[in-house]
């Protein structure tokens, strides 16, 4: 789904192997995917941006064709700190000491932590269709719990969500795409096929649950340890006008509590901003990073 001039490479970090696709020319631009997808979600945006940037699209730990270690008791090996460290190692291996970065959904949460833990690495950052994890958990109400029911389902212990999702992973994944996208949204058939392939692996289901379990536990600890820390690089927030986030949160106001310089806007789509509106997303990223 990527142009032939994109290279696929497995990059070994300290703990895991990260599947990575990269190509293009110019300053490095990191693109981090969300749940329940893989790097493939960037296929159209990456092709456009590769004319101006060297685009790097990894599969996060636990997703796609990256390593999927079993979760630890404290879920620390799926903390956003650990996942961010993986990606910093990938970029260092590729020879990049600093770079631009954009993250959608879970990738945006990894990027948020990366901006705090590795501020010298990130020149500019874009988060898509999220509010900060700590804020969302600590202000949860009926509206949030209904729209984001999966946050509370996936963190259940003893393999409960793994068992239930594993009984029909394709149904679960397709329902996620349908529920979170705007009515009539279209996804590339080859991308959906790839998501189903990867998500049908029981290890991926477990790893993605661990990602959410970490968000509800150790990630909150890390967030509370540095609540006074703010993202120092310019931050762009994009979100879907037909999605959930903006109906519950003042997205820009919340990010301005977490970052020094914030701009942003909604796009006319649901949650899956880069796939529902790839041309508009590409234009916003070109303007912001360019």
List keywords for this structure.
15 helices; 290 residues; alpha/beta
What does this structure look like?
By secondary structure, this protein is of the alpha/beta class. The chain contains 15 helices and 8 strands. It has helices spanning 43-49, 80-93, 106-117, 133-138, 142-147, 149-153, 160-166, 169-180, 189-199, 202-215, 218-225, 245-248, 251-256, 273-276, 278-289; strands spanning 7-12, 17-24, 27-32, 53-58, 99-104, 122-128, 235-240, 262-267. It has an 8-stranded mixed beta sheet with strand order 1-2-4-3-5-6-7-8, with helices on both faces. α1 (43-49) crosses α15, α7 (160-166) runs antiparallel to α10 and α8 packs across α9. The longest helix is centred in the first third of the chain and has 14 residues, at 80-93. The protein is globular, with a radius of gyration of 17 Å. The two termini are 24 Å apart.
List the helices and strands and how they pair.
Layout: E1 7-12, E2 17-24, E3 27-32, H1 43-49, E4 53-58, H2 80-93, E5 99-104, H3 106-117, E6 122-128, H4 133-138, H5 142-147, H6 149-153, H7 160-166, H8 169-180, H9 189-199, H10 202-215, H11 218-225, E7 235-240, H12 245-248, H13 251-256, E8 262-267, H14 273-276, H15 278-289
Helix pairs in contact: 1-15, 2-3, 7-10, 8-9
